[in-house]
Amino acid sequence: MASLETPICDFGRAAPDFSLPGVDGEIWTRDRCRGERGLLVMFICNHCPYVKAVRERIVRDTRALMDLGLGCVAIMSNDPRDYPEDSFENMRQVAAEFSFPFPYLLDETQAVARLYGAVCTPDFFGFNAGLELQYRGRLDASRKETAPQTVRRDLYEAMKQVAETGQGPHEQIPSIGCSIKWRA
Fold first, then answer.
1. How many domains does the chain have?
2. Which of 127, 155, 162, 179 has the fewest CB atoms within 10 Å, i.e. is most exposed?
3. What are 2-24's pLDDT values in tens digits?
4. What three-state secondary structure class fits 21?
5. Does 102 reside within a domain?
6. How far is CA 94 from CA 1, 23, 27, 29, 87, in A?
7. How far apart are CA 53 and CA 35, in angstroms?
8. Residue 13 within any structural domain of the chain
9. Mind listing the pLDDT tens digit for each residue in 63-107?
10. How confident is the model at residue 149 (pLDDT cuts 50, 70, 90)?
């Protein structure tokens, strides 16, 4: 399980479109997921300890961001043949167990992860209302273990700034997590 950091934010890069099945039985597109003030695209999975450490915080922060007019979506791009915990059925179970307030989508071909340049789970892409990239950083200081409650909420604060001003912070700390499990 390789641990990787995300690249620095490529400010202004356009959000690629997608059309993917959700665990709710719906087909979701970028434009269907976006909010009036922007879009947060998260690449997550079920088996990664970095994601498991922050699932509750992802739910907490996305609920707050949705209240600010930001759309949020999570995409699972791992190959579940080697990681059965990441199967579509298990995605459904995790989304229900943690009451995901956002669509949880399967990128079976891994094409969307490649379009976005996702490298790890979790990997966060924060876009403004014009769907221009403004954030490519971490959720908070958590790693494989959940950080204390008192840590700075990097993702929430950055995306709140994006919702209010259209611009993300220039200082961003990369996310770290397990590598995306690419098909051979």
1. 1
2. 179
3. 677 888 899 999 999 999 999 99
4. strand
5. yes
6. 21, 10, 19, 21, 10
7. 27
8. yes
9. 999 999 999 999 999 999 989 999 999 999 999 999 999 999 999
10. very high
Please give the residue range of the domain that contains residue 39. 3-179
Helix (H) or strand (E) holding 74: strand 70-76
pLDDT per residue as tens digits for the range 133-142: 999 999 999 9
Q: What is the CATH number of the domain that holds 69?
A: 3.40.30.10
Distance CA 30, CA 14 (A): 11
Look at residue 67 and tell me if it is in a domain: yes
**SS3 breakdown of the chain: % helix, strand, coil, rounded to 5?**
30, 25, 50
Helices (H), the chain: 30-33, 49-52, 55-67, 88-97, 111-116, 154-165
User: CA-CA distance, 38 to 112, in Å (whole number)?
Assistant: 19
Element (H, E) at 71: strand 70-76
Supply 136's token pair: 């490519």
Cβ proximity of 177 and 120 under 8 Å: yes
Instruction: Provide the pLDDT for residue 143.
Output: 95
- Which of helix, strand or coil describes residue 169? coil
Whether the pLDDT of residue 57 is over 70: the answer is: yes
Residue 184 falls inside a structural domain: no
